[in-house]
């Protein structure tokens, strides 16, 4: 609290991002949240912004109406306040600057967040996803793969989990030798086992081979992986990096003078600090497997760009779609020049390659990039999602993230900027993974048990630091922080409101007919994920949600059925045998009941639970208005926004008395009558 | 009407048919006056594929040795391939298809021969008449009247016999106004907004010409429209510059000095060749699967199709806003008043009027605002995106309308009583149909050709219970509210259902949609 200079500022205006609309209200600054409360008495809108969600705060130069403060959030919310007095603005600004740069983990929200659970519930929450059980589900340990205890004390590799699965033939000396030859000690270990063909998906980091170095133990390690699979004579080694830098990207990142030398033959002269790709890495004593030294491997580059390229690309994309009065052409050109969808395609293509190698050829695959915690995590987890229907269920998807991202040490703290760190380490790698999953759900609407809202929720909480799951960079650090004792698990929360994340089109039988998904990565099938990147720009979304509607229907049906059962039971108690069940005729008074069960809407009409007071508050500003008029919930653009989008009407005739607008929610009119 | 002389080879055996979603099929190909018939007898089961020749947009033949391959690119954007043994047969068949698919004598077209058992020619043709429409709107009757000045189509050949005009304007005046408007399309009422009594009128451009000719009667008519409310808007679907230029060729616009109570707003909507080329480019981009993401996006951008969707929706939004929020009557026109004018006026009605959002209401809107209002379907839809023929009067204005309606329905999935399959069906029927509905260019032509007596009506058919069920939206929840679409580029999407319909991908989506539909029907049925 000592950082908060001004806890409350009145008469602050909130400007809409895409129109001339604005609302005024009061800004509150608490230890955890920045809260804006609209002063409109009837339907006071509230916006709660968690400090951890704030990516940047910018104070613009003073205008006649006040001092503008622009806040960009990591969940892609952008708010633009105008504070009347410069001094208030500066106080808020400097308080926020301090608050959003926590220096120690203990300052994170997760350590103070208390969802009113008892100790037992909290513990149960952490026990939901058991990775040992998950490997058992895959059929491991088995005659070819075993659990090794070499990393029990995080001695061999401190960014790996304690429990690791390796081929039977990989002895301890082999493991130790291999780990010394691999960047950060991340030696090849099992991450997914395709039981049907006994083919393994393994992951590791790049070998420290430079141009000529060899490591016999590492070679034996790969040999052991190969031997563990009788179906194939060789192992694929997928290096997910591009072989040579993309010249476009290079010119984008580096001054012109470097570009000329970025050809494969001469790129060894690059300064090692550039660390552009596998070739450049070789110059730094790192590199990739030489097919001459490793018997029975097939080496393959797949060309996913590095974290810096991804960061720049998403920044560019956000810049484009954040432009006011964007034309269709500029939008499409901006989408193109950002390269974002191209990168998404590259990740999905890599996962498809992995999936084909495993499921069609029955070959084992070793996946790596540089350190094996970004691109490798993307490709392994997406590949598993394509291969195994289990990961397409809600529970399975959580397990997948727990395994490939959390336990194998994706650096969430660095990539999501949880603590004040190196901005060059920040990158939307996990966001990109979620987007790839979303692209798949769009292509296979029946294959996934969960809906888009689950992806958005997970993304929200990866950055919220409200739950312990994603804190810190690796398991070892998490244990030191005693997260399981001191924080709550996100998975428990998500499962507790699982019905909100159900995909109504999900068809469990689909998994039998399509155990392996074969997505198309034709460019025309990739879409811009509006609900992610414009999640909070309400005027942009469909005004009615099919998802919400169908979920509501299902829910109300379920309730009606319950009612019937109860009534039948009561009849029986009175000794009257129930007539043949007739679901058509529930008692009249019960028919009104479904209304309040309509899930509350965020943009998608995606539902929210009221169970969790705290959580409700955070996102509640949307949820609340929905209650006011569930029957006519239709979201949309406001009158003034329409002026903006449709033309110069306002200018030509001056201000008009507002016609009767039925304001349905959120102060934004959607449908008028 | 001797088709047989154009059919040198009527039957070929052992033809292989390749089409999307199906394995290649071997069978017999048969050419008739209106169809390609492909039948395959596989053991006991026999399968029949029937393709309306009118649906074929372009045909490519490629000889290979003694046999030949014909690629058929259809107006519904499907591409088929026929491998025909025998070079001569192949060439004969290609020649027949080329000739028969581009017949332009209306009475030779298939709708005049289509006689399904379930339908009778005695059934009502069309959904309702101008008289019925007028009679239903009692509230407008004191200020508006039904005029039969055009009963023999002599005042305006592209208008229906009866139109609604201000009460105070007599037929004599209308005749004079018609002379001042291109093609005789004098301003008529197309929508009456019950809430505030404001109206949407449409017409063609005034023929002011280079020397700024005026027409008292025209000014009088427009004055009568806004009588009492003081102000009106004219939405001109051309840019200001285009409107100025039109004066050089005898056209023009309503000048401020002559129409002081009217405020002109210019919104440039593309039409004609530009629109047709846009569609061609878009379909080409969708069909080419070899390019990278960057190339795809730049081709999509380059086609400008989504920009056209954007402009159309934004202009319709502006129009609806003038009426609903500003409370003013609006006159909309471009040049001829048969293309973009109709596009904008019908979209605005969908935004404002809940009645047009039911299945029957939507078809009624199309009948009033497109068929009776004289959109020249035969000219505009002679060819689609694949044709190599030199462009004449083709323009996919109606397809653009359907796309915009799809965008609306996607943003308000519960507000429309009809579903995407209806829009897809219409997109197909407008180019090639068993029904007479979209034949000819105007009501007059349809009457002259006997379309209403000798063909069946598509709209009537679509409203039969079985079809109605197929095309209705199970999620439909009627709302009296206006539905304002978002026109941000991020809110618009490529209509994959239409433009990527024949990719494998579409199958998954269609199945899921079907599944969802059944689920909703089941839920609704239970509660």
Automatic annotation (TrEMBL), chain A:
Molecular function GO labels: phosphatidylinositol-3,5-bisphosphate phosphatase activity; phosphatidylinositol-3-phosphate phosphatase activity
Active site: 369
UniProt family annotation: Belongs to the protein-tyrosine phosphatase family. Non-receptor class myotubularin subfamily.
UniProt record, GO biological process: phosphatidylinositol dephosphorylation
Residue sites binding substrate per the record: 306-307, 369-375
Top-level taxon of the source organism: Eukaryota
Sequence ranges assigned to domain Myotubularin phosphatase in this UniProt record: 125-533
Gene3D superfamilies registered for this protein in UniProt: Pleckstrin-homology domain (PH domain)/Phosphotyrosine-binding domain (PTB)
SMART domains registered for this protein in UniProt: PTPc_motif
GO cellular component terms, A-Z: cytoplasm; nuclear envelope
Pfam families referenced in this protein's UniProt entry, alphabetically: Myotub-related, PH-GRAM_MTMR6-like
Residue ranges with Basic and acidic residues bias: 609-646
Protein name: Myotubularin-related protein 6-like isoform X1
Keywords noted in UniProt: Hydrolase, Lipid metabolism
Family matches, as PROSITE patterns: PPASE_MYOTUBULARIN, TYR_PHOSPHATASE_1
Gene: LOC120050932
Chain intervals for the UniProt region annotation (Disordered): 574-654
TrEMBL record, chain B:
GO molecular function, one term: protein phosphatase binding
A family per Pfam: Myotub-related
PROSITE patterns, per the entry: PPASE_MYOTUBULARIN (PS51339)
Myotubularin phosphatase domain: residues covered: 124-499
CDD domains, sorted: PH-GRAM_MTMR9, PTP-MTMR9
GO term, biological process aspect, one: phosphatidylinositol dephosphorylation
Domain of life (superkingdom): Eukaryota
InterPro entries xrefs: Myotubularin, Myotubularin-like_Pase_dom, PH-GRAM_MTMR6-9, PH-like_dom_sf, Prot-tyrosine_phosphatase-like
GO cellular component: cytoplasm
Family statement drawn from the similarity comment of this UniProt entry: Belongs to the protein-tyrosine phosphatase family. Non-receptor class myotubularin subfamily.
Protein name listed in UniProt: Myotubularin-related protein 9
Biological classification of the source: Eukaryota, Metazoa, Chordata, Craniata, Vertebrata
